[in-house]
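Hi X.,

You mentioned you wanted examples for the new student's onboarding notes, showing what a folding record looks like when two proteins sit in one file. Here is a clean example. The first protein comes first, with its sequence line followed by its structure tokens.
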Amino acid sequence: MPEGYFTHKIRGLGLGFLLFGVLLATTATAQTWGPDVRLSDNGPGTWPAGNNAKAVAVWGDTVYAVWGEGDFEFWSGVSCTGSYDKGKTWNVYYWISENNSFSSSPAIAVYEDNIHVVWSDRIDGSNEIYYRRFNGNDWEPVERLTHGDSASSSPSIAVSGNVVHVVWQYQKGDWDADIYYRRFDGNSWQPSGVLSTGTVHMTRGASVASLGNGVHLVWESGDAIHYRHSHDKGVTWDEDTSIVRGSWLVEEPCVTLWDNEVHLVWVDHRKHDRGDVYYKVFDGTSWGPDTPITDSEDETFHPSVAVSGEDVHVAWSQDSGGYEVFYRRFDGNDWSPAAILTPNDWEDSRFPSIAAQGNDIHLVWMDFRNHTNEIFYKHGTLEGGIEELPPLISDDYYLEASSESEPLIHYGIPKAGKVSLVIADVTGRVVRTLVSTEQSAGYHEVIWDGRDDQGNQLSTGIYFCRLRTQEHSITRKLVLLR
């Protein structure tokens, strides 16, 4: 078993603002990529998740990566590592799964200084889903989330605040599977339940994302990509909707969020037998058209998507005489030409996972350059037009509020002082005081539960959030939904 461990404790960032990344002044026009950095060091071999779950996560300057490693025959485990300086240097990796068992398909999510990892494992002979959390100081004990009959696999995880969302595939028969869901509500794990009810084909490839109260789930069923949405942190769910359907094969969906937008990529076989990468976005009102990212006879697979502001980043594997990692970016107006990020002679770079925040892009993938599968990392930087707020202390006042049933409000102040944060109705009358106290400089967040100061539930409609200090005042409109 590897003896590596994080050499420093994960530093708490303590700022909710970074859930939204950075303020964008104009759209970036170009990107540059740094050198390849090898993260793993395992003789038998390593691999990321093969089901499009996220293998990389970012919060502020800190980047985390997770992967499986082992000899594929007698043992395998899950490892995790972190960088505190946007990928410039990396800590020694930590063995997450503890046991020499048969671990696979690890996935990672992060919120502030909490790291959340799930994976599939056969610790006691049964293939089940396991979970472990780093709480900002220590790794907590491993928890088993499923108790089935050797049929749970391919988990995906998302987190918002202290609520954790996990989805996975449960195999009931050779051609019979469902997508299951379980959530940690901030106090305890709630019972699991099936979300793919009504799907008539084999279901797999679940991908989940969360922001505020919203949870968004996609999965595949052969000829369709399905979508479900929860407005209340996974307590209840909207009906299953087929957002992509045809007489051709669709597979490997991957979903991510930005504000009220839902961004989706997948592999689509409508034009080429070996598949193309497609993209579409839900803008808060409706789903946009299916947009091809590739148009090639080459085999394409395992697309991953990340979004920061107007910039959409997509990475995928493609067999162009050898498996390489490709990349394209949408800058709000146009898609950039496809770029090969791993031009090499070993012809086997696969399973990319991408994350982005501000003008920083983080990519991990599996590579065979040393005659064994290892995990590599590459850092990309957007140039020309992004103005990024410092990660910990604001140079200016900032206020942003989401529109939902319990709006999440982010704000930043450049120096310590008395702060007032209130909600007013359309007449200007203050209906709720959220903050009225001395606060330190930096970024803060608060959730408005949709009630007034007397505890009464307010009606759906337009309200105004007002931030005020002794020197400055900002007001932002929000919509309270039901």
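Then the second protein repeats the pattern, sequence line and then tokens:
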Amino acid sequence: MPQGWETLHAPSPEAISEAVSAVVERYDSFRQAARRRAVEKFDVKSWLDRHDQIFFRSGKAFRTEMTPRVSIVMPMHNNGTYVRAAVESMLCQTLGDFEFIIVDDASTDNSMEVVRSFSDKRIVFLEERK
């Protein structure tokens, strides 16, 4: 199909309606196919290796103090615009017995500075440099 073809030959509203109806009718098969592809592509070993890197260092448990009832892990990469609201929302939860683990994946914006501005002892900040 030549570039710009769709702008020169826009589909009719009826054709768009038919296409949307076809997608809606086949929604379950699309959902199942997407789930099957996700399961096939998910690599459990690399996920578990990464988990061990974060939570275990040199064979010693990462946290040695009293274990909180809940651990929340938030990955972060260049989210400086939203991270303050996310952290504040987490810290305002009614359950106070938790640790909030924030893993920065080599952000290049101000995300790390925003997280460092919080002094709450429940925040555990891990910086991953590439």
